[in-house]
Specification:
Strand content of chain D: 5-15%
Helix content of chain D: 40-55%
Largest interface: B-C, 117 and 127 residues
Number of strands of chain D: 8
Oligomer: heteropentamer
Number of helices of chain C: 14
Structural class of chain D: alpha/beta
Number of helices of chain D: 18
Distance between the termini of chain D: 48 Å
Largest sheet of chain D: 8 strands, mixed
Order of helices and strands of chain D: HEHEHEHEHHEHHHHEHEEHHHHHHH
Number of domains of chain C: 2
Number of strands of chain C: 0
Order of helices and strands of chain C: HHHHHHHHHHHHHH
Bound molecules: adenosine-5'-triphosphate, magnesium ion
Radius of gyration of chain C: 25 Å
C-alpha cells in the first residue's frame, strides 16, 4: 500500500517525445485507471512508474520517497505486462512462484498462494503446462496471477483483461475489485474497456498524446467532461458532436443545430451571438419521439445487441448521429426517425473543445 | 547500470551508485584489456623490432634500437653506451671496438679522450626506433597484391557460399518436420567430429580427382559446408517464433521466400557470428591451401607469409610484420560485423 | 562516421546477393509446387549435403579404407589390405590405463592428455565465455571496443598465438620478468608437465574464447527484453536472474558452445603443438598431433595407422556428443 | 604471343632458412635471360610443405619439376635420373659423388637426380667471452666431449649461464655425438641395429648431463616426438656456453649476436669413435613426373656449374656441397670475420666426416632412425621413461616403420 | 469470396484433444464469429481453417474443393494472428506490402493499397517505423492492415481488436463491417467482445471445450439460446440463473424461485411437478418495482457506467442477481430493492442445461 506522485514526468525515445510532463498524485489504496487512445503513452507512463523506463526529466515519488532513479526491482511494485512476458521455460506454477521465491517465502506458503491465485483465475488445470501450450487468454491469466500472488505496494496492470472472454472478464474484474477492497492495495490500471474503467476506477486519468486531459471519478468524467476529447472518449458508443452556432434570442440562448434551433434552459456564460460551438449529446440521451422530435433523421445502420440497440442515423447537414434504445428496436435501415435531445444532458464545447460550464 | 542493464536492457540512469557487480565487471574488462589485448598489442609492437631485438632476453616492450653517434675521426657511426668508469662516474661513451672483455671507448664530444671499460660495466643507450624495413622489404619482394587478391577472393566467395548453403540447411533442419530429419541432424553433428587435419589426405585425393589442384576453388569448396555453421544457425533459428513463419505462409510467401526474406534477416546475429568465423578461418587457413596450392600465382597470404619459416630458422621479423598486415583487414571486418550481432531483433513483432 | 560508411559499403556488397536470392525464387516456387512445401526441406538441405558428401563423407570412407590397409602408397587401390592390423596395433596394450604398457604408447598418451585437456579447457572455456558474454552484454561505455578486445585473439593464426605466448612464458619472458620483480623465482613453464598443460589450456582458451563469447552474445540478444523487465518487477536478485532466466533461455546456445568447445577441444593441435611441442616428454601431446605426425611428419607417411587412430577418435567423439545431446534435450525449453 | 608458346615453364619448389631464396631467384633470372625458352617459377613455401605435403603431391602426380628437399632418401623414389639429358654427367659424378648417393633409391649407384644446395655439418659454437669472463681455458682440439662438458659447466657456474652445454634437439646432432662414441648403426646384415654400445654411451652421456645440469631440460625435455628445438635465441643472449648445432647458424649469429660477445666455431669434440661430425643438407632434386626432363636438366646443369654454384654458396654463406669448390675453398665476401672463421672451421670438419656418418645420412630410412631416437630419448630425459625402456622402444619403432614402408 | 465447410474436424496436441469433431458450413460472403470461453479452441479452429494446423481427422473444404492437406500458402486466406506476428525486421509498410509482393503486384499498386489501408487504420504516420517502436494497439492495427491489403478468399481474424481503445475499436469494427459489405468477403472472426460479436456477425458460433454449442444469428442466440451455456455466454452482464422447482398448480405452471412462486403464462411442455429446473433472466429484463416486486433483495454492489447502472443484489437462498438500470441509479450498497422479472423474457433450462421450449 503506497502513495505515488509524479511531477513533470517527461519521456522521449530519441527524438520522439512520448510523455510531455505528467503530474499525477495517486493516494494510498486508490484505484486509478489510465485510458486514452492507442499510442498515447499509457504503457510508457506505467513503465515509468514501474521503473522500467527512466524519465527523461521529472520526478517519481513513492510513499514520499524519491524513487526517480531507483530500479524497478527495488520499488516493490508488481506489473502485468501487455505482452504478458511469461517466462517461457517455466511452468505456470513456476511462473507464479518465481517472485515469491525471490521474496524468500517458504515452499508451503508459496504453494498455498499459487494454488489460491490459480483457483481464482481458473488455472488450476494448467499449473504444470508451459506457456507455449496455453491459449492467449490462459497466458493472460497467468500474467495476472503472477502479479497478484505477491503483495506489492502498487499493482500495475497493462490491459490485463483484453484477451479474456466476456464471462471471465466480468469475473476477473470483480475479483480485482474484491482484491482491491480486501487488500486495499494501490492499483494503476490501463484499459480500453469502458466498463472496466467505469466500474473499477476510483479515479480515471484520460491521456492524449502524452498529456493528461482530465482526472476525475468515473461519473465526473461522464457527467462533466472538461473538454470534447474526454467527452468523446468516455462513454460507449461515443458522444455525438454536432456543430452549432449561438443565436442570441430573447432571454434564453438558442443554438442552431443543423436546420433547427435548440433552446437552452439557461445559457452557459460568456457566449456571444454568432460564436461557433460544438454540441455534445450521448447516444443514451437521445430519445425517439415521433411527436416532439427536434430533428428527423434517416436510419443508416441498426446494431441490435439483444438487450439494447444502437441506431446510426443521419440528418442533412449534420454528422451521423448514434442513438441508443433499450431492447431490440424495430427500426430498419432507411426508416425516418424523429429524435429529441434530453436538454439536461447537453454538453457545449467552445471552438477549442473546452467544455463550457453549464449553469 | 542496474540489473536490467547488466542483462541487456536499455536504461542507464544518471546519478545511481554503482552496484558491486558493475565494479566487478569493469575490473574484469580492464583485466581483459591487459590479458586479451596486451599480447596482441605486443605482437604489433614486436613487429617493429629488428631481428636481433626480437630475440632479446629479457624482452622489451617497445622496439628499441641502440643509439649510434658519429664521432669525428671515425669512419663509421659508433654505438653509444652508458659506461661506469672506475672512479664511479657514469658517462655516455661511444664504443670504438671491443676486444674480449674490454671495450675501448671514446667521449663523442671529445674524441681525444679514450677509455677502457670492462664490458659488464656498460649499458647500451637506446631509443625507440621502428624497424619499418620488416614491412617494406617483404612487401617489395612479395607479389603482395596477388596474394592479397587470392586471399580476398577465397575468403569472400567461400564465406558467401558458406553462409548461403549453411543457412539453407539450418533452415531445413530447424523449420520442417520430414522423414530423415534425425538422420540428417546426426550427419551434421557427426561431420562436426572430423577435423580437417585428419582427413587431409582423402580430401586431397578427392580434390585431385576433381582436377581442382592449384585452383582457388580447391581451397574454397571443401570447407564450404561447415557443420559448425549449420549447427549454430539451426540452434538460433529454433528460437524464432513459429507464428512469424506461419504469418508468412498466410501471406503466400513461398518456402524459399520465407527463408530469405523472413528467417535470414532474423538470423542476422548468428549469421554475423558465422560470417566472422568463416572469414577468420578462411583468411588464416594454412594447412589445406599448402597442400593443394603449389604455384605462387595461386598462393594465399598465409602460405606466402609462412614461407619465412624454414627448416632450421624462421625469419620472425618478417613473419610478424606480415602477420600484422594480414590482421588489419579481418580486424576491420570484425568491427563492422559485430554490430549485427547486437542488433537483437528476435521477437519484437510479437504481442 | 567511418562505421556508417562501412555499413553502407556492406549494404552495397549485400545487394547483389539479395538480387541473386530473389532470382532464385521462381525456380524454387516451381519446385515447391512440384514436390510440396514440406519436402522443400530436402531442397534446402541438398547443396550442403552435396558438399558434405564430396568433401566429408567420401573422404571419411576413404579414411576407413586407409585404416584397413597398410604401406605408404597414396592411392587406396595400391595399398595392401591388412584387415584390423592397424587397430590391433593401436590397441596392443598391457593395460589401457597405463599408456606406457602399450605398444603405441604415444597414441594412448595422446588420448589421456587430450581427455585431460578437454575437461579443463571446456570447463574454462564455457565459464569464461559465459562471464565475458554477460559482461559484454551490459550497457557500458565503450562496449564495441571491449568486444573487439576480447575477440581479437580469434583473428590470430594458431602459430602466431603460440608464438606470442611462448615469448611471454619462456625462461626470460615477460611473465618471469614480472615474477622476479615481485621477488619470486623464475619458473620453467615448459619443463614442468603440470605447468605445460596449464598453459596449453590457457592459451587455447585465450585464443578461442572470443568466438564462443560471440555465440553467447548473439544468444543473449535473442532473449526478449520484456522477460528481464518482468524479472525486475519480480524483484529478482541478479544471481537469480542469471540462474533462472538467462541461463535457461541461453541453454540452446550453451549447447552449441559446449558441443563445439568439446569437439574443437578434442581436435586441438596446432597452437598447442607450436607452444609446447607436445612436451615436456609427451605431457601435452594431443591425439590429433599424434595422428598428424603419424601421417605426415614421420618419414614413413603411415596413413593407415593414422586413419585407424582417427576412426577411433571420431567414434569416441560422436558417442560423447550424442550423450551430451541426450542430456541436454531434457533441459531444453 | 607466339614467343610465349615456345617458352617452357618449369616450377621449382623452394624453402628458405635465410636469404638463399633471393639468391636462387637472382640466378634463375639470369638463366632465363640467357635461355629465353625456359622460364622457371620459384615457388617459395614454408619448410613444412617440403616435408609434409610435397611427398603427397609427388605421389599423386601433382608435384613440381624440381624442389629443394631435405629428406632426399625418402623422396628418392620420385627422383629423376638426369643422366641422359646432362651435358657432362662426369662433372656431376666428380663433384657431387658422395652426396648423389643420398638422393638415389636403395640399390641404385648410378643415377644423378640433383645436387646439394647446401652441405650442413654439425659442430659446436662456443661463447668465447664467457670463457674469458670465467677465466677458464677453452679445451683444445681433440678434446673429448667429457672435457668440454666439464669446462662448460665450470664457466656456466661462474657466469651464471643457465645452459652450459646445449645440443639441438635433433637426431642429427645426437648422432654427431653418437658417432664419436663409436656407434655403428647398422648390423652385419646391413639392416639398422641402432642400439649398440656406442649408442648407449652417447645416450647415457646425454641422460647424465641432464641429471647433472650440464644440459638444461628446456631443449630436450620440453617438447615431444620429433619436434626440433634449437638454442639459437639462448646462444644469442649469451646464456649458452657451448652450443652443438651446425653450419647453418653462422649467418644468423653474424647478424643477431653482432658485437655483443665473441663466438667461435670449434672442431667437433671427440670420443671412442673419433671426432666426426654429422653431415646433412638440402639438395635440389629433379622429379620423374616432370613433362620437360630436358629443360630441367639444362637448368640443373646451369645451376650446378662451378661459378654459379660458387656464387650461390658464398652469397648464402653455405658450406659447399661441391667437392671441387670445397677443396679450393670459397670466399665469403659478405661474411663478417667471425662468420668467415666459423665457415672455415666447418668446411674443414666436412672433410673429416667418418664413413659411418655418411652412411647414416645416405640411408634411405635414416629419418626413421633419427626420429625414433630423438623421440624416445626425449621421453627418457624428461623423466617419462627409463633409458632401458627407451632403447627397447627405439628398436621396436624402427622395425615397425621399416616394415610398414616395405608393405606393398 | 468463398464457402467453407468443415466436417468432423478433430485436433489433438499429443494427448490433449482440443477440437472434438467440428461440423460447420460457412456460406460465401458470410460473416461468422466464433465465441467461447478462453481455451475452448477458437484459435485452434481458426488455424485449422487456415491450414496452419493439420486436422487430426475430418475434412476441410473451401469452395467445394477439398483442401484438408493443402498448405496454408495455397489456400488463399488471410489471417490476423492473436500474437500479431509482425515481421520485426520490416517497417510497417513492408509488413503490409509483403503479401502483395508475393502475389506479384506492381509497386504502384502495392503502394496504393498499402496507403489506403494505412489511412483507414490511422497508421499513415507510422508506415516507416519498425514494429518494436509501436504501441500494442498500433501493432495490432498493422496486423489487421496486413490482412486487409490483400483480397483474400476468406479473412480470418483472431481477436483483432482486443488491444484497441474504445473509439478506435468502434471505428475499426465499423470499417470491418463496411469492408465486409463492400468486398462481400467471407469472414471468420474470433472475439471476446459481445458488441463485436452481436453487431458484426451474420452468424455466431458458440464453442465450448472444442465442441459447437450453438450456431445462429446474434438475436437467435440472444433470444433463444439452446442451452444454459449459450444463454450465459451471450449477453453482458451475463444472464442470471436461479434454481427453481416446478410446482404443479391449477391450470398454469408455477415455479418456486427462492421463497416465491413465479407464475408462467403458459408452461413449457413436458415438465412434471417437482422437477428441478433453472430459471434464466437477463439483467436488462429485471425491473425495479417497489410495488409489484416479486422479490426483495439487498444491494451488494452498484456499478455506474454513466449511461447505465448494474446492480448486484442478493436475496436469501438465491445466487447473486444482477440487474441493469438506465442512467445513474440512486441505489446504494445495503439498500433493499424490490425486483420483478419480465415474464416474457424468462428462460427455462432443464437439469442438463437444455432450454425448454417456451410456447
Ligand atoms: N501447442 C499446444 N500444445 C498443447 N496444448 C495446446 C497447444 N496449443 C493450444 N493448446 C491448448 O488447446 C486449447 C485451445 O487453445 P486455443 O488457443 O485454441 O484457445 P482459444 O479458444 O483461442 O483461447 P483464447 O480465447 O484464450 O485465445 C487450450 O486449452 C490450450 O491450452
Ligand atoms: N522504444 C520505442 N521507441 C520509439 N517509440 C516508442 C517506443 N516505445 C513506444 N514508442 C511510441 O510511444 C508512443 C506511446 O507508446 P505506448 O506503448 O506507451 O502507447 P499505449 O498508450 O500503451 O498504446 P496502446 O494502447 O496501443 O498499448 C507510441 O506512439 C509508440 O509508437
Ligand atoms: Mg500499451
Ligand atoms: Mg486464442
Amino acid at each position: 500500500m503506497a502513495e505515488l506522485k509524479l511531477t513533470g514526468a517527461r519521456k522521449s525515445f530519441g527524438t520522439i517525445d512520448v510523455l510531455h510532463g505528467i503530474d499525477l498524485a495517486v493516494k494510498d489504496g486508490e484505484f486509478v485507471v489510465f485510458v486514452g487512445p492507442s499510442g498515447c503513452g499509457k504503457s510508457t507512463l506505467l513503465r515509468v512508474i514501474a521503473g522500467l523506463e527512466n524519465v527523461t526529466s521529472g520526478e517519481v515519488h513513492i510513499d514520499g520517497e524519491r524513487v526517480t532513479h531507483l530500479p524497478a526491482s527495488e520499488r516493490g511494485l508488481a506489473m502485468v505486462f501487455q505482452s504478458y512476458a511469461l517466462y517461457p521455460h517455466m511452468s505456470v506454477r513456476k511462473n507464479m512462484a518465481f517472485a515469491l521465491e525471490n521474496m524468500g517465502l517458504k515452499p508451503a506458503q508459496i504453494e498455498e498462494r499459487v494454488e489460491r491465485a490459480a483457483a481464482m483465475l481458473r488455472l488450476t488445470d494448467y499449473l504444470d503446462r508451459k506457456p507455449k501450450a496455453l491459449s492467449g487468454g490462459q497466458r493472460q491469466r497467468v500474467a495476472i496471477g503472477r502479479a497478484i500472488v505477491r503483495d506489492p505496494k502498487i499493482f500495475l496492470f497493462d490491459e490485463p483483461l483484453s484477451n479474456l472472454d466476456a464471462e471471465l472478464r466480468v469475473a476477473t474484474r470483480k475479483e480485482l475489485a474484491a482484491l482491491h477492497a480486501k487488500l486495499g492495495g494501490t492499483m494503476i490500471y490501463v484499459t480500453h474497456d469502458q466498463v472496466e474503467a467505469m466500474t473499477l476506477a476510483d479515479r480515471i486519468v484520460v491521456l492524449k498524446a502524452g498529456r493528461i486531459e482530465q482526472i476525475g471519478t468515473p461519473l465526473e468524467l461522464y457527467n462533466h467532461p472538461s473538454n470534447a476529447f474526454v467527452a468523446g472518449f468516455i462513454g460507449s458508443p461515443r458522444m455525438n458532436f454536432l456543430p452549432a452556432v449561438v443565436v442570441s434570442d430573447d432571454g434564453m440562448l438558442r443554438l442552431t443545430v443543423g436546420e433547427r434551433d435548440v433552446a437552452l434552459p439557461r445559457a452557459p456564460s460568456g457566449l456571444a451571438a454568432g460564436a461557433a460551438v460544438t454540441l455534445g449529446i450521448r447516444p443514451e440521451h437521445i430519445d425517439v419521439a415521433p411527436d416532439t422530435g427536434m430533428l428527423t433523421a434517416t436510419v443508416d445502420l441498426v446494431e441490435r445487441l439483444g438487450g439494447e440497440t444502437f441506431i446510426y442515423a443521419s440528418a442533412p447537414g449534420l454528422p451521423q448521429i448514434t442513438l441508443r434504445q433499450d431492447g431490440q428496436s424495430q427500426f430498419h435501415r432507411g426508416d425516418a426517425v424523429a429524435i429529441r435531445f434530453a436538454a439536461d444532458h447537453l454538453h457545449i464545447f467552445d471552438a477549442a473543445g473546452a467544455a463550457l460550464a453549464r449553469p | 547500470m542496474r540489473l536490467s542493464s547488466m542483462l541487456g536492457q536499455r536504461r542507464n540512469g544518471p546519478g545511481r551508485p554503482l552496484h558491486w557487480t558493475d565494479i566487478a565487471a569493469y575490473v574484469y574488462l580492464a583485466l581483459g584489456v591487459v590479458l586479451m589485448f596486451g599480447p596482441v598489442l605486443w605482437l604489433v609492437l614486436s613487429s617493429f623490432k629488428t631481428q636481433s631485438a626480437l630475440l632479446e632476453f629479457p624482452p622489451s616492450l617497445l622496439p628499441f634500437a641502440q643509439v649510434e653517434v658519429t664521432v669525428s675521426g671515425q669512419p663509421q657511426k659508433l654505438p653509444l653506451f652508458r659506461a661506469k668508469l672506475p672512479d664511479g662516474t657514469v658517462r655516455e661513451l661511444a664504443q670504438v671496438r671491443r676486444i674480449g672483455l674490454i671495450a675501448q671507448m671514446v667521449d663523442p664530444a671529445d674524441p681525444s679522450q679514450q677509455f677502457r671499460v670492462a664490458i659488464d660495466k656498460r649499458e647500451p643507450v637506446r631509443r625507440v626506433a621502428l624497424a619499418t624495413e620488416n614491412y617494406s622489404e617483404p612487401l617489395q619482394r612479395f607479389a603482395f597484391l596477388r596474394f592479397l587478391y587470392n586471399s580476398v577472393f577465397v575468403t569472400v566467395i567461400a564465406t558467401l557460399i558458406t553462409l548461403l548453403i549453411n543457412s539453407m540447411a539450418a533452415y531445413g533442419l530447424a523449420v520442417y518436420q520430414f522423414p530423415g530429419k534425425q538422420a540428417a541432424t546426426l550427419a551434421v553433428i557427426g561431420t562436426l567430429m572430423i577435423p580437417v587435419t585428419i582427413i587431409l589426405v582423402p580430401v586431397y585425393l578427392v580434390v585431385t580427382e576433381l582436377g581442382l589442384t592449384n585452383s582457388l576453388w580447391a581451397v574454397i569448396l571443401p570447407g564450404a559446408a561447415t557443420p559448425t555453421g549449420v549447427f549454430l544457425l539451426r540452434q538460433y533459428m529454433l528460437t524464432l517464433p513459429k507464428d512469424l513463419i506461419e504469418a508468412a505462409r498466410m501471406d503466400k510467401a513461398s518456402e524459399w521466400q520465407i527463408y530469405w526474406r523472413i528467417v535470414m534477416p532474423l538470423t542476422l546475429p548468428a549469421l554475423a557470428v558465422l560470417a566472422i568465423f568463416s572469414i577468420m578461418w578462411r583468411w588464416n587457413e594454412f594447412l589445406w591451401p599448402l597442400a593443394v596450392l603449389t604455384k605462387t600465382e595461386v598462393y594465399t597470404l598465409q602460405i606466402a607469409l609462412n614461407a619465412f619459416q624454414g627448416e632450421l630458422q624462421t625469419q620472425w621479423h618478417y613473419l610478424l610484420a606480415m602477420t600484422v598486415v594480414t590482421l588489419i583487414p579481418v580486424a576491420l571486418v570484425f568491427v563492422f560485423l559485430q554490430r549485427f550481432i547486437t542488433t537483437g531483433i528476435g521477437s519484437t513483432g510479437m504481442k | 562516421m567511418a562505421t556508417g560508411a562501412l555499413a553502407r559499403l556492406g549494404q552495397v556488397a549485400v545487394l547483389p546477393v539479395g538480387v541473386a536470392l530473389r532470382l532464385l525464387d521462381p525456380p524454387m516456387r516451381w519446385m515447391q509446387r512440384m514436390i510440396g512445401a514440406r519436402r522443400m526441406a530436402y531442397v534446402f538441405l541438398l547443396p550442403n549435403f552435396v558438399f558434405f558428401g564430396l568433401f566429408v563423407f567420401l573422404p571419411i570412407g576413404i579414411n576407413v579404407v586407409f585404416s584397413v590397409t597398410g604401406g605408404t602408397a597414396l592411392f587406396p587401390s595400391q595399398r595392401p589390405y591388412v584387415g584390423g592390423d592397424q587397430f590391433a596395433y593401436l590397441f596392443d596394450c598391457g593395460s589401457y590405463l597405463d599408456p606406457s604398457s602399450c605398444r603405441e604408447d604415444h597414441f594412448w598418451r595422446g588420448v589421456a592428455n587430450t581427455a585431460k585437456f578437454v575437461v579443463f579447457q571446456v570447463t574454462a572455456m564455457v565459464l569464461l565465455s559465459l562471464v565475458t558474454a554477460l559482461v559484454l552484454n551490459m550497457k557500458i561505455r565503450g562496449r564495441g571496443f571491449f568486444r573487439a578486445v576480447y575477440f581479437f585473439p580469434v583473428l590470430l593464426s594458431p602459430v602466431v598465438v603460440a608464438l606470442i605466448w611462448k615469448w611471454i612464458l619462456q625462461r626470460d619472458g615477460l611473465l618471469n620478468a614480472a615474477i622476479t620483480t615481485l621477488g619470486g623465482q623464475k619458473i620453467l613453464f615448459f619443463v614442468d608437465p603440470g605447468w605445460a598443460m596449464f598453459w596449453a589450456v590457457f592459451v587455447s582458451v585465450w585464443a578461442h574464447m572470443g568466438f564462443y563469447t560471440l555465440i553467447l552474445l548473439a544468444g543473449l540478444q535473442a532473449i526478449p527484453a520484456d522477460l528481464y523487465e518482468a524479472a525486475e518487477m519480480d524483484a529478482t536478485p541478479r544471481w537469480r536472474v542469471l540462474l533462472r532466466i538467462t541461463l535457461p533461455l541461453l541453454w540452446p546456445n550453451m549447447i552449441v558452445v559446449i558441443v563445439l568447445a568439446l569437439i574443437k577441444g578434442a581436435q586441438t593441435f596446432d597452437e598447442v603443438f607450436v607452444l609446447t611441442g607436445g612436451g615436456p616428454g609427451t605431457a601435452t601431446l594431443m591425439v590429433v598431433q599424434y595422428i598428424y605426425e603419424t601421417a605426415f611428419s614421420s618419414q614413413v607417411q603411415n596413413f593407415g595407422l593414422a586413419a585407424a587412430a582417427s576412426v577411433v577418435l571420431g567414434v569416441v567423439l560422436f558417442v560423447l556428443t550424442l550423450l551430451q545431446f541426450a542430456a541436454a534435450r531434457r533441459k531444453e525449453v | 604471343g607466339p614467343a610465349a608458346a615456345e617458352t617452357t615453364t618449369l616450377r621449382m619448389t623452394w624453402y628458405s632458412d635465410g636469404n638463399e631464396g633471393e639468391v636462387m631467384a637472382d640466378l634463375l633470372k639470369r638463366f632465363h635471360e640467357q635461355n629465353k625458352d625456359i622460364e622457371i617459377v620459384l615457388d617459395q613455401v614454408p619448410f613444412k610443405a617440403i616435408n609434409e605435403t610435397l611427398p603427397v603431391q609427388l605421389a599423386s602426380g601433382q608435384g613440381p619439376d624440381m624442389a629443394r628437399v631435405v629428406d632426399m632418401g625418402g623422396l628418392s623414389r620420385f627422383a629423376l635420373d638426369m643422366r641422359p639429358f646432362l651435358k657432362d654427367p662426369g662433372y656431376w659424378e666428380t663433384n657431387f659423388g658422395p652426396f648423389l648417393e643420398w638422393m638415389r633409391p636403395a640399390g641404385d649407384t648410378k643415377s644423378i637426380p640433383g645436387f646439394m644446395t647446401q652441405l650442413t655439418v654439425t659442430g659446436p659454437f662456443v661463447n668465447k667471452t664467457l670463457f674469458e669472463q670465467a677465466g677458464v681455458a677453452m679445451p683444445g682440439e681433440k678434446s673429448t666431449w667429457e672435457d668440454w662438458a666439464k669446462a662448460a659447466k665450470q664457466v656456466a657456474d661462474k657466469v651464471q649461464a643457465p645452459f652450459p652445454l646445449a645440443l639441438d634437439r635433433s637426431g642429427h646432432r645426437f648422432y654427431a655425438l653418437a658417432v664419436s662414441q663409436g656407434t655403428q648403426v647398422f648390423g652385419a646384415n646391413g639392416e639398422p641395429d641402432v642400439v649398440d654400445g656406442g649408442f648407449k654411451r652417447a645416450a647415457q652421456l646425454v641422460y647424465d648431463w641432464h641429471k647433472s645440469g650440464v644440459m638444461s631440460k628446456e631443449l630436450w625435455g620440453s617438447v615431444s616426438g620429433t619436434a626440433y628445438r634449437g638454442a639459437n635465441d639462448e646462444f644469442k643472449n649469451a646464456q649458452v656456453v657451448m652450443y652443438l648445432s651446425g653450419s647453418w647458424q653462422i649467418s644468423q649469429f653474424a647478424k643477431t649476436v653482432g658485437d655483443a660477445f665473441d663466438w667461435v666455431a670449434v672442431p667437433n669434440p671427440c670420443g671412442l669413435g673419433g671426432c666426426s661430425s654429422m653431415p646433412g643438407g638440402a639438395g635440389l632434386v629433379a622429379f620423374k613426373t616432370t613433362q620437360h626432363p630436358k629443360e630441367v636438366a639444362r637448368v640443373m646443369d646451369y645451376l650446378a656449374s662451378e661459378p654459379v654454384l660458387a656464387e650461390f654458396y658464398s652469397r648464402s654463406l653455405f658450406v659447399p656441397g661441391h667437392l671441387g669448390l670445397a677443396k679450393k675453398g670459397l670466399d665469403y665476401p659478405t661474411a663478417s670475420p667471425e662468420a668467415a672463421a666459423a665457415l672455415k672451421v666447418f668446411t674443414a670438419s666436412a672433410a673429416q666426416i667418418s664413413p659411418i656418418a655418411y652412411r647414416i645420412q645416405g640411408y634411405s630410412n635414416s629419418r626413421i632412425v633419427l626420429n625414433a631416437v630423438i623421440s624416445r630419448l626425449g621421453q627418457a630425459v624428461s623423466g617419462e621413461t627409463t633409458l632401458e625402456d627407451a632403447y627397447k622402444r627405439i628398436t621396436a619403432d624402427v622395425a615397425q616403420q621399416i616394415a610398414e614402408r616395405n608393405k606393398k
